[in-house]
Every structure is written in C-alpha cells, then in structure tokens.
C-alpha cells in the first residue's frame, strides 16, 4: 500500500495542528502517555509477536526481548520527561554590574522542533520501527510523529500504530500526535513538506544518503538523523589470544550468527595475529548452527551479492563456507560464513571486501605486529557505530593506547573485552558515529540523549514573568532543574 497524496496532506495538516498543543502538555501528563503506550504494547505482545514472526522470520525469543526493550525505552523516557533536565534550562539574572556592561535577564531552554518523520527499520521491527527509539524520543520531546512504515513488515506496522494511537488517545493526547504512512514515494514526498521539521532513519547507506540529501535540499533545510552502515571492526591482541582464545572464538560465532547477522552492530572484521589458531574453534562453533531466515527477499538478494563477492576474492581462505538457500519467492535462509585474509590483501582489495555484508558473514584479518593495528585501522576504516578491543589482562602498552585513540576517532562506542551486538537502553549509551555510520555524529539514536535530536534552543530576553514558558519562570511550576547565573559573579571569573 502507498499513502495517497490526499491522505498525505491530511497527515501533514494533522501533525502541524497537534504540534503546539502537544508541546504544551505538562511533563507528568506526557510521561503518563508514554507509559500508556508501553503498557499497550506489552498487553498486545502475543498478537504483535505472532505477526512479527510471520513477516520477518525472526525468532519468538528475539522478538519478545525486542518488544520488552521497546516498552522499557518508553518508560525510561517517561522518567526523563518528568525529571526535566533534558530541557537544559539556563537563567542569567539581570546584572547592571556585569563586567562587559549591563546584562539583561536572559532565559534559555529547549523546545520541540515540531512534527518529525521517522523512517522505520526492517531489522528491528519493534525497537527501531513504529514505536521504537526515534518515535519514543520524539514523543518524549513533545514532537508529533509520523512514521513511514517499512515494507518488510506492513501488517505489524499497522497494528503497532493502532496500539500506539489508542494509548495516546486514552491518555488525552491531541489528535494527530502519532500517524502512519506507507510507501517509499509517500515518505519522500512528506519529507519535502514544510510542515515536517526533522527526519530520522535506520537503514542502508544508499537510501539514507538519498533521504538526507532531500532534507538538506529543501528551501528550508531540516535536520536529518540517519543511522546507515557500519562494519564494526574488532581488534584482538596476541596476549588476548594466548589468555582466552577459545572464548574469543565462541563469542565471535555467537555475535555474528545471532539474528542471522542482520544487526547494525555485527562485527564484520576481526583482526587477529598471525598464528592465532582460532580456525578450528570457529569451524566447530558454526557447525551446529541451523539456517535462519533472512528478513525479506531484498535483504537475501543483497546478502547473496556481497557473499559471492567476498568468496570470489583472490587471496581469501574459507574457514566456514556456510550456506545460503533462496526459495522461489526470493526468501533466503543462511548459516554463518567465515573467511580469513591477510591485512595486506584486505588493503589491496579495498571495497570488494571492506563494504558491509549485511548477514551472517565475518572476515578474520591476520596482521603481524600489535604495533601496526593503529595504522591499519586509520587506513582502512571510516566511521563506525562501534569498534572493539580485546587485549590481555592489564595490557596497556603504547601501541594499545594508540589504537584506543584511533578507535575513539572512528567510532561512537568503543568496547573493551566484549562484542558489539546488543545495545543497552541506558542514559549513557551512544549509538551513532562518524559518516557513514550516521549522517550526524553528534547525536545518538539510543539512550536518553536521543531526545536532544528533536529539540531546538530558544532564549527570552527581559520577558515578563507572565509571558515566560513554565520551565523558565521563577516559580518553576514544572519543577525542572534550572541553572541560574546570579548577578555579580562576572567579576570573579577566572579566579579559581
């Protein structure tokens, strides 16, 4: 289905009409609405998970866990809304003795940007889809949401939207605060609409870049937060291999094979020292893994092309060839594929190997000296969502420290001793990174800081109390944190 032009106009008008009323909803009511959505999703879990299993091929356990994460995320944002520090309220008291001349009363905080268009993901039908992180963050910020459903799970998208809409209506939220559209053309058309004030996306580099360019080329450009491609390199030192080689092999196989490798944080490249002796453990670990259905025919086709390109590259060694079966309808089933290659060959082959393989495939890259890892990482990798270091117990040589600095420059999350699949929904989480991991490396799509994407700053100068927004008033009726700069302090600046 594709939303018609007439219906798109209605959706945009409804979202715009709801914007001011929803932004004015006091924190406790908005928080209760988010909790109501979480409750509604939880109550409908059996129905929603059943639809999701049929449309995506993901397991029941995976989907139930993902739905629980989605509900928890909404509840976490409810806490954020009530606590209020996300508004970043700053108050400068009028100061006639200010060192640069009399200072006016200036009060600044963050306000919702207005209607947000969220393009849902295929590989997380709950956590990054209709009611997922982008939608939750925008609703928490006080912005109406329009979700462009992913074509890989249309029935689930419609039913989830119905649950969300019913919960918001039951909580007394304005009509038009949450809506669903369908179809690629409809999504692009609505992204161009001047009533849409921000966009969010999770998907491929190609599609994300196209949408980001649309948002940037509007007569009035808008922020666009896209999570795109990531190969999530892992670096293993010789000391780590000697200490726990078998455990590393087991952890790698688990991380790559989970959900058939259809995760944006799957480790695509694992750098291991020559003579690492992990091959046998990896082969043994993959042998009992049953085939897993890929999300949809488009994913299966893309994975087949990337897997064929990797397997036919000169200089690779196949460790576990895995399998890929595609039926008459284009649906695919896969088991994990592992290959190895030298660091020199990886550099020579370039994008033929370095491009992301979205599916259960990972490349072991053999290097000679730990001291070379920082230089290798700098030459080979652009931005990534994650980068991982497995070092020996207490290992902190100059080369390891240098590698950590390089990884910090190239990734949004640097892991030590773990595996990147699995993104905790916590206040400190960062799920983003330099291009091409995202279109905006100063933001995150997971964690409480995600709310900042859908807010913009406004300052009021010498405003009377009666005309100030509630968070900026002296009586502070919303009881939010206020950072106050009192008069008279400027003469003491620099004396600490």
UniProtKB/TrEMBL annotation:
Pfam families: Aldedh
Gene Ontology molecular-function annotations: oxidoreductase activity, acting on the aldehyde or oxo group of donors, NAD or NADP as acceptor
Cited InterPro entries: Ald_DH/histidinol_DH, Ald_DH_C, Ald_DH_N, Aldehyde_DH_dom, Aldehyde_DH_Superfamily, ALDH_KGSADH
Alphabetically ordered keywords of this record: Oxidoreductase
Keyword Oxidoreductase among UniProt keywords: yes
Top-level lineage group: Bacteria
Location of the Aldehyde dehydrogenase domain: 3-377
Record-given protein name: NADP-dependent aldehyde dehydrogenase
Species per Swiss-Prot/TrEMBL record: Compostimonas suwonensis
